[in-house]
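Dear H.,

Thanks for agreeing to be a second pair of eyes. The structure we're designing against is below in token form, covering all 645 positions.
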């Protein structure tokens, strides 16, 4: 029977969670039984309205009655003459508190009695007293257990750091490539710990903390694991988000516990991954919301702990974040994370080194050239490259190849840049034609514009989330600066697709929205951040976020309405000019546009020599050179955008 089973569970000295869970089930079962069982006990008797019952009593038809508090069972006098017919038993539900009933029954000579106490009723009575506190404790136990993670509620404040002794992560510095500067700094830290007296003898203070800063996927966590693998000291690792829990104060307790443990094991390394989860600026946006109390307390505790131990106790804290700009300035004060180690996206040589690391366990064919792959993957971080190698290996395996060939890598790059091919998406003839002209428009303008690299491929096979067709333009080298004419050229290239539609069909489709968005963003950046407008001059109108937080100020420099208007006008002017130039180039190369689009429609994909020969025929109109004035330099992120859709 289920009741017994549950009782056994309850008696077992089990964990709180199990206790809470099984107890709730037990309660529910008991309550249900209490209601269900009685209704199965007796046969179902005909139910009569109470008033009819009274009438029957008054008419002298009732022989005897069993009067319960919520049910009356009664037997009618035997009315048949032979006296053999069965007694007729009826029931009724009494109107609450009819105090006259005994009197009426007596008056009409009805034999009556109250039923013996219901054998099932005690359960309900008992439960109504016992259940509420038990339910409360059950839920409480469940919550405590859920947020504690440990075997019982008492471990809430314990830190959840994973401790690994030397080498147990299995990662070495040789597994990390392309981030040599960061490696040198971290090797130094490992040395501090291994040979502490070498430094303290001369009176040098060992740094307390190092902060690894860099975009996602550049290998920060990997580096930390490599330190654990290299250092012959205990290594505590925990993620910033693991401090924060439901209850205020838990995080702070965990920080305290973590440092207590670490000090006992010194010399050792404490690694806090994703520090921004708890180290967000206290004064920043959202700081007024009460929900941040917990994070703030945790952060304060961390700051206190970092101040509280002597530099030479041999505890070194390493933290990683990809959002240094949101960190509380107090964290970066000297004496806390006084070393910042930048882990940046790798350059061409770094990418080749990372590819080598990840290709160690992959069978490569003769024709695979990792250096070429590195050239074709600007802006890829370590994680992207690891993914690329794996993707290529998967493709080769699917084709049952003996080794991974270069074509697999090329297809894998395209997948990562543009998404999966979607041949299942069938376009109708008009759509296909529109897409073909659109892409050739991008390609012709892209081929004539400076800086952005050569157009490698045009395709009208849908890919990824939204691309119906695409053009891939690969930079020939890593670029970290964009010159003014390159930005203009870029904007014109982005608008080239739409312009081709205009030239050929005289109307535009919805397919250019993404291009327009990117072009507008770029134009706005050129004017408000890079100071490329002659009218507005070298004034920055946007503050980047870091300055905003450190300066405790407004995100946008306050500008007058006139200047705002001027900015809008300049952005529009830049876009209009680029649009105009794109239109005139395409009109100038009308036959080339026509022929290339037709060929693309037949072949679906144009690349390699065939494409290059065609695009070499593109000629620039007079006004182009005049428009592309060189001059001002601006800083830009590495050119990540190689895809036009
Ligand atoms: P982050 O913590 O900076 O976001 P990870 O360290 O988690 O990045 O990197 C994810 C994965 O990408 C690693 O496990 C590794 O396989 C690969 N990777 C990233 N950077 C590198 C690198 N510099 N060298 C080798 N592999 C890398
Ligand atoms: Mg990480
Ligand atoms: Zn486009």
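And this is the sequence the design step returned. I haven't edited it by hand at all.
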């Amino acid at each position: 029977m289920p009741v017994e089973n549950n009782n056994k569970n309850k008696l077992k000295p089990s964990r709180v969670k199990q206790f809470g869970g099984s107890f709730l089930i037990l309660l529910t079962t008991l309550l249900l039984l209490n209601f269900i069982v009685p209704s199965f006990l007796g046969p179902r008797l005909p139910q009569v309205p109470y008033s009819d019952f009274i009438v029957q009593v008054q008419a002298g038809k009732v022989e005897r009655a069993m009067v319960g508090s919520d049910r009356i069972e009664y037997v009618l006098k035997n009315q048949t003459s032979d006296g053999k017919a069965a007694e007729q038993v009826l029931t009724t539900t009494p109107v609450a508190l009819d105090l006259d009933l005994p009197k009426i029954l007596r008056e009409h000579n009805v034999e009556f009695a109250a039923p013996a106490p219901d054998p099932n009723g005690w359960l309900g009575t008992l439960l109504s007293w016992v259940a509420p506190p038990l339910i409360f404790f059950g839920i409480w136990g469940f919550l405590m257990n859920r947020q504690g993670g440990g075997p019982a509620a008492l471990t809430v404040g314990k830190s959840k750091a994973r401790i690994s002794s030397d080498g147990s992560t299995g990662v070495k510095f040789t597994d990390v490539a392309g981030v040599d500067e960061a490696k040198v700094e971290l090797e130094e830290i490992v040395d501090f710990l291994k040979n502490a007296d070498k430094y303290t003898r001369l009176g040098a203070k060992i740094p307390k903390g190092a902060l690894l800063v860099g975009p996602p996927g550049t290998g920060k966590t990997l580096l930390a694991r490599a330190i654990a693998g290299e250092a012959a000291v205990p290594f505590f690792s925990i993620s910033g988000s693991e401090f924060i829990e439901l209850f205020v104060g838990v995080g702070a307790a965990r920080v305290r516990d973590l440092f207590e443990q670490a000090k006992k094991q010194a010399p050792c390394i404490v690694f806090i991954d994703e520090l921004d989860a708890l180290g967000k600026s206290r004064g920043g946006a959202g700081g007024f919301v009460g929900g941040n109390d917990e994070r703030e307390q945790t952060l304060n505790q961390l700051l206190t702990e970092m101040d509280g131990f002597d530099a030479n106790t041999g505890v070194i804290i390493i933290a990683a974040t990809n959002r240094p700009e949101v960190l509380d300035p107090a964290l970066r004060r000297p004496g806390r994370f006084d070393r910042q180690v930048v882990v940046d996206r790798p350059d061409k040589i770094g990418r080749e080194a990372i590819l080598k690391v990840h290709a160690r366990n992959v069978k490569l064919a003769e024709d695979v050239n990792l250096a070429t792959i590195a050239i074709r993957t600007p802006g890829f971080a370590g994680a992207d490259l690891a993914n690329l190698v794996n993707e290529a290996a998967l493709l080769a395996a699917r084709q049952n190849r003996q080794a991974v060939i270069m074509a697999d890598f090329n297809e894998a790059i395209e997948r990562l840049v543009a998404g999966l091919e979607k041949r299942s998406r069938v376009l109708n003839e008009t759509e296909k034609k529109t897409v073909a002209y659109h892409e050739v428009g991008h390609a012709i303008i892209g081929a004539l514009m400076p800086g952005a690299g050569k157009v490698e491929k045009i395709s009208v096979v849908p890919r990824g989330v939204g691309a119906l067709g695409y053009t891939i333009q690969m930079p020939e080298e890593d670029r970290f600066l964009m010159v003014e004419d390159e930005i203009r050229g870029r904007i014109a290239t982005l608008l080239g697709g739409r312009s081709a539609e205009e030239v050929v069909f005289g109307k535009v489709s919805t397919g250019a929205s993404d291009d327009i968005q990117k072009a507008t963003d770029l134009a706005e950046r050129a004017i408000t951040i890079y100071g490329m407008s002659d009218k507005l001059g070298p004034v920055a109108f946007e503050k980047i976020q870091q300055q905003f937080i450190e300066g405790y100020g407004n995100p946008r420099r306050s500008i007058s309405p006139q200047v705002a208007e001027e900015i809008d006008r300049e952005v529009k002017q830049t876009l209009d000019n680029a649009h105009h130039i794109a239109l005139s180039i395409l009109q100038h190369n009308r036959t080339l546009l026509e022929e290339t689009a037709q060929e693309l429609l037949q072949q679906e994909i144009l690349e390699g020599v065939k494409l290059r020969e065609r695009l070499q025929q593109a000629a620039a109109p007079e006004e182009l050179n005049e428009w592309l004035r060189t001059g001002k330099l601006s800083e830009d992120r590495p050119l990540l955008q190689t895809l036009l859709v």
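Two observations from my side: The first strand starts at residue 47 and ends at 48. The chain is about 50% helix and 10% strand.

Warmly,
E.
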